[in-house]
Each structure stands twice: as C-alpha cells, then as structure tokens.
Amino acid sequence: MNIDTEAPAAPVPISAFLDDVPPPAPGAFDEAQPYSPLETQSFALRPITDIQPFFDYSPTGGDPCEHLCPPPDGLCPDDPNRLCPVPVDMAMSGSAERYFPHLEYYWAASNLHHNPLYFENPALERYGHVHVHDCVEPVYSMARFSAQLVGLPYQLALDHACRRQYALGWYRPGDFAPKLVYQPPLNARAAATAAAAYTGLFLLVP
Q1: Is residue 115 a contact partner of residue 161, using CB atoms and an 8 Å limit?
Q2: DSSP 165
Q3: Single pTM value for the model
Q4: Cβ within 8 Å of residue 125, ≥6 positions away
Q5: By the 8 A CB rule, do 178 and 127 touch?
Q6: Which among 85, 152, 178, 180 has most CB atoms closer than 10 A?
Q7: Residue 35 has pLDDT above 50, yes or no
Q8: Is the pLDDT of residue 38 over 50?
Q9: Cα 206 from chain centre
Q10: Quick check: bond before 153 cis, omega within 30?
Q11: Does the pLDDT of residue 189 top 80, yes or no?
Q12: Which helix (H) or strand (E) covers residue 109, if one does?
C-alpha cells in the first residue's frame, strides 16, 4: 500500500483569484440588483493579530465609559459617582485558595411574623433531628402531639392566639444546630388558667 507523504499545499489567498478580474464598466450591472464589493475589487484577509480591541467598544451600543473600570486616562470624563473596585495583588505565599479582598455584608432581619404554633416540633421540622432512630420518630411525634393537644389550654394561656411570633432566635440555615430538648416554660398563671379550664370541662361533661 502506497502512502502519500507529500505535504498539503498551502491555501491560496482570495486575492490571487481576484487580481486578474477587471472592475466592471459603469452601467455594466443592474443597479436594482445589489452586488458585493468582492465582485469589484480585490482584497487580502487581515490576520487576526493585526486586529486590536478598541477601548470605546460598548456591547449595548451606549456610552462606552459605562463598561470601562477603571477608564483609560483621557478617554472618559471624570465622574465622582463612578466607583471602581480597588485592584488587589494576589498573595505570593500562604493559602492556595483564591485571595479575595475584604467585603462587608449587612444583614437585616425580615419583619415576617406568624401566630403561635401550638403543635410544632422544632427539632424535627426545623433542623431534621430525630429521636433515637427514624423508626422511633413517628411514635415520639404522636406522643408529643397528644401531649400538646391535652396541654392546649396551658399553651393558650401562655401564648394567646393573636400573639405575633418571629423567627428570630432560631438557628439559621447552614448554622450548626445542636440537639436540644424543647419544652414549654413553667408559668403559674398559665397553670392556674389551664386548671380552671380542665375543671370546667370536667363539670360540663357528665
């Protein structure tokens, strides 16, 4: 089997085909039909290394100074409202992670609130903590709900239904939340109100 080892021929520039084509005489073409400049003059393709970027380029077609930061000297007028980040040199030694300048972040708590959640299980619903095992959690949740249902008069006396509660004080998403045992606070007034409610229900039911 013969293998052709000759090098491929170099590409022929377009100008080689257009140099011998004379320009058309005036009136030789139909003015109603558009024609390409390639048909009337010869040219050579410029290498990409000769094409330099322009500082006044704008992707939106608007003010080019809007996208230049920092702007070149003498190109854009001085504008005190244009704030550019301060360039920071990369660290020569130390951590291999990318070096970022110091940034300040201001966090404001939301003003969202809700009414008291008398049948809430914060350990499970907020943080996903289970007791002992996943198979035991349904039994624990049922027992907790039953205790909350029986103790509803105590909870109503402790937190009335129209009271506003906020999410402040709970661990935020992403924070480490330790396993805690949440229980209702002890309150003598709420206990007396609950006792009166239980006594009234006992007297009403024969």
Answers
A1: yes
A2: E
A3: 0.45
A4: none
A5: no
A6: 152
A7: no
A8: no
A9: 62
A10: no
A11: yes
A12: none
